[in-house]
Design brief:
The structure is a homodimer. The first copy, chain A, has a single domain, classed as Orthogonal Bundle (Arc Repressor Mutant, subunit A), CATH 1.10.10.10. Chain A is about 60% helix and about 5% strand. Chain A contains six helices and two strands. The first copy, chain A, has a two-stranded antiparallel sheet. In chain A, α1 packs across α3 and α1 crosses α4. The radius of gyration of chain A is 19 Å and the shape is elongated. At the A-B interface, α1, α2, α5 and α6 of A face α1, α2, α5 and α6 of B. Chain A binds a DNA duplex (30 and 30 nucleotides) through α3.
Chain lengths: ~150, ~150
DNA sequence: AATAGAAGTAACCGTTGAAATTACAACAGA
DNA sequence: TCTGTTGTAATTTCAACGGTTACTTCTATT
């Protein structure tokens, strides 16, 4: 099972905004063309990023602005914004194990902190990468293109 | 998006085998009852664990045997066995970004190693927990039950 | 004030994967 | 041979994702 592409699409969006935002406006149509998807898909993801307080969106005229310095927006922030439901854990249990079975009634409690630790390890690594890292990496790649 | 319950179900199976395996045989029907699901679901997961070389299954008579010491079976082994497809990464990209867009043609390459590092952080943490840990933890919980 | 460009959003579709279920074939031990 | 159990195919239901159309709302510009 894979994490939905909304996450990588959101990072793609940030990269476009950082790279092109100064020269011309970055609209959902433009982004959809770069990513090769539908503008509505983009708008839905933009809506999630906005709802999470990561960007502001200018209506009518178009244009996307991060609300804080790029170095303060981590991959984790983006992930949480587009790819998680309130209180949803990464792992999930089969519902209603048999309480009459000793294992059944204890397994949830036994696994919980271990699974949380695994999820936390992933999220901590995510916190180690910022949109600024992404921006600099992209600049470096583009400089190499000739 | 969540990782499928096959992972926690597989851990539940191991816990049952460890806890009850000496006293009576642990069949797919018994496991299905403890987990509260269908025996066929169990058999399919058992098939994956067997295919991965983690257990052996006695046909006809029933009975599940781990193929190596419990301390040498990690959560990662179980996860890989039941919840991943050959060469499938945890994250995935939207297919075919626009090669005419500078960001579109570089984003994949730019993100790849970062996403791999995040996935690896999760998997490394998974390697830190073994079926033996699980077994001991369950014994401890059961001892506390009175 | 009217217009044009763009975001917001509802409604619907097709595809995919998970979980569940039924049914039956294959196998091993008594 | 009979019985219990695994192996597996076929089917169903459901939810989520990605895609698409169509329309409304908003804002800058003319």
């Amino acid at each position: 099972m894979q994490i939905s592409s909304r996450f990588t699409v959101a990072l793609h969006i940030f990269s476009c905004v950082d790279t092109f935002g100064d020269e011309h406006k970055v609209t959902s149509d433009f982004l959809a063309s770069s990513i090769n998807t539908n503008p509505v898909i983009i708008r839905r993801i933009l809506g999630q990023l906005k709802k999470a307080g990561l960007i502001e969106i200018a209506r009518g005229t178009g244009g996307i602005t991060p609300t804080r310095p790029l170095s303060e927006i981590t991959f984790y922030d983006v992930y949480k914004a587009v790819d998680s439901i309130e209180d949803e854990k990464l792992f999930h249990f089969h519902e209603n194990p048999n309480p009459e079975c000793p294992v059944g009634r204890n397994i949830h409690n036994l696994l919980n902190d271990k699974l949380d630790a695994i999820q936390k390890a992933m999220e901590d690594e995510m916190r180690g990468y910022t949109i600024e890292d992404l921006h600099k990496g992209m600049e470096s790649l583009l400089a190499k293109e000739t």
